[in-house]
Amino acid sequence: xxxxxxxxxxxxxxxxxxKIRAKKPFNQYRALERAQKEIDDQKVFLKRAPLNxxxxxxxxxxxxxxKSFVEESMKSDDEFLSKxxxxxxxxxxxxxxxxxxxxxxxxQRPTQLTNKLPIKxxxxxxxxxxxxxxxxxxxxxxIDILHNHHLEPNEWTAEVLSEKFKLRQxxxxxxxxxxSLIDETDKSKVxxxxxx
Length: 196
Prior knowledge:
Blueprint: H1 2-44, H2 60-74, H3 78-86, H4 111-116, H5 123-126, H6 139-151, H7 158-165, H8 169-178
Helix pairs in contact: 7-8
């Protein structure tokens, strides 16, 4: 008999534990559902956060004074506007804009700027050395200058190169003295800076 009693008690405990384990996911689901419902309710019925506003009430005199101050600051100053209307602006410029004829009108820069600033040119205009401003040489032309001077230094002197490419002779001399082309296969001419 006692054995059956113990067996019943064990069965009851196992049943209770099984019910608890079976209800646990359902209770979690219900908790999530309740939380979602609270979130949805807060989205629908918005509540403003409490403000730390002091409970100070203004008197009628203070309110009227502030209103009159705002009205005075927003009112236009007639005296100042009347003074502005009396001001006349005179100019030394000609009456109308200068009209250019078709021959005078061009989309090129003025010569003063052209001599000072480099002009961005297309590949077609770079082939003509006459269109490049004085003192400016594209990189491929510099490489050609170095290559030709290296092959025939007597024919391609600094004087000839400066005349051909509209450069100062002193600049061309310095350029030829201080620069040289390096052959990719010749590793002896490449000097590495070991301090870096």
